[in-house]
Structure prediction request, 149 residues.
Amino acid sequence: MSIVLSAAAVFFLVWIVVRVVGKRELSEMAPFDFVILVVMGDLIAEAVIAEDTSVTGAVVAVATFGLLTVAMSWVSWRLPKYRSAFEGVPTLLIRDGEVVQEAMRIERLNEADLLAAARENGIESLQHVKWAVLEQDGAFSFFADEQAQ
Prediction:
């Protein structure tokens, strides 16, 4: 039972960390960041399983993580009112060619990041963008201004 409680505690800690880190940072992981995540996974496994290094202990911990993931998904689906707390919400970064500075500050982005994403989408100038949205998964969506084309 202690493995289940430890796994649940670590699951919620990881969930909170992922929500706090921010969607853009997660989508731009460098190789070093990936290695750090793998090392964190090992440390988490040791913390969850503690002295129990058996296969059973590992299975119980992984099953707890799996069940909690499914449970959070189900709660998010069943209670749409609270979905944004579980999954995040898209953030409007450009409105009618103007950068929304408050949204940029909240998402910890600068205009260079936005310009780079625009160039990746074939957009030369932010003034040609009607809307730019930072999606929940960290991807950018751009909607061109029809009059500018």
Remarks:
- Residues 2-87 form one domain.
- The mean pLDDT is 78.
- Residues 21 and 107 are 10 Å apart (CA to CA).
- The radius of gyration is 20 Å.
